[in-house]
Design goal:
By secondary structure, the chain is α/β, with parallel strands linked by helices. Helix content is 49%, strand content 15%. NADPH dihydro-nicotinamide-adenine-dinucleotide phosphate binds next to helix 1, strand 2 and helix 7.
Length: 240
């Protein structure tokens, strides 16, 4: 059956590409999603990968969702914290809800999933956790104090948890994607996107599969000596 991997937000975009890459590497893969049942159904029909619906920003729901996965599929060996949202706006116009939703889901989701998965990994003395950060958590971005703070937090979370897992065969790493061609970036107005692409040295958006290759490496047995590390995959847009 191979290792069991759970990818949050795995039914679309980068998460979907990660699910496919891990499965190609022989893992049994499970996706999670929040609410878009139609996309989740199409994803499962097309890939055969099951999708479990729960909000990773909700602590109890996440513990229950992971317990259900463990019962129905098996113990979780690989956790990819990919689920994320944006609620952009300048600080003056950003509501507390816009701040709180992004912190709760993007950063709180990593904590909730790790609480569910880390103890079992420690008992079994093997685990891989890969957190999806962002170039905007490294460099900041106008109109994104919520998103940049949550993503920057993911990088600190990664380095702290890496220290806790090291002696138990658990690696914890992060990927900081640049601008990738997904629904999230499709929501950016075209004139803004043109200006963004003009600043990417390789001259194009990234593909979801290019992020997935990095995750597959971190999740592999061969990645055992790599922990607490952040891999930037951004076409040279931000060299960190
Ligand atoms: P998409 O918006 O295309 O997909 C988001 C996925 O996350 C969906 O499956 C969605 O489920 C799921 N999701 C959202 N909220 C929750 C939640 N509360 N609980 C569980 N699942 C949830 O995103 P991308 O593929 O573009 O982005 C994936 C990750 O990569 C995010 O963390 C994002 O911040 C990060 N990233 C993306 C970049 C880009 O350029 N696209 C750049 C840098 C980082 P549903 O379908 O049900 O809504």
């Amino acid at each position: 059956m191979g290792r069991i991997a759970v990818v949050t937000g795995g039914t679309r975009g980068i998460g979907r590409a990660i699910c496919e890459a891990l499965r190609e590497n022989g893992m049994t893969v499970v996706a999670n999603y929040a609410g878009n049942d139609e996309k989740a159904r199409a994803f499962t029909e097309e890939t055969g990968i099951p999708a479990y619906k729960f909000d990773v920003g909700e602590h109890e729901a996440t513990l229950e969702g992971c317990a259900k996965i463990a019962e129905e599929v098996g113990p979780i060996d690989v956790l990819v914290n990919n689920a994320g949202i944006t609620r952009d706006g300048v600080l003056a116009k950003m509501s507390f809800d816009d701040w709180n939703d992004v912190m709760r889901i993007n950063l709180g989701g990593c904590f909730n999933m790790a609480k569910a998965c880390f103890p079992g990994m420690r008992e079994r003395k093997w685990g891989r956790i890969v957190n999806i950060g962002s170039i905007n958590g490294q460099a900041g971005q106008y109109g994104q104090v919520n998103y940049a703070a949550a993503k920057s937090g993911i990088h600190g979370f990664t380095k702290a948890l890496a220290q806790e897992g090291a002696r138990s065969g658990i690696t914890v790493n992060a990927i900081a994607p640049g601008y990738i061609d997904t629904d999230m970036v499709a929501a950016v107005p075209e004139n803004v996107l043109e200006k963004i692409v003009a600043k990417i040295p390789v001259g194009r958006l990234g593909q979801a599969s290019e992020i997935a290759r990095g995750v597959a490496f971190f999740a592999s047995d061969e990645g055992a000596f790599v922990t607490g590390s952040t891999l930037s995959i951004n076409g040279g847009q931000h060299m960190y």
